[in-house]
Amino acid sequence: MSWRNGRSRNGGTRPPFREAAGLNYPNVSGTLTAAPRRGQGLRGDAVVLLALVIPVLNPEHPQEVLSWSGWDVEVPSPLAARRGAEDLQEGHAVLAAGQISERPTAGNGLRRNVLLAELLHHEPPPDPPGLVVGGGS
Question: What predicted TM-score, i.e. pTM, was given to this entire model?
Answer without folding.
Answer: 0.69
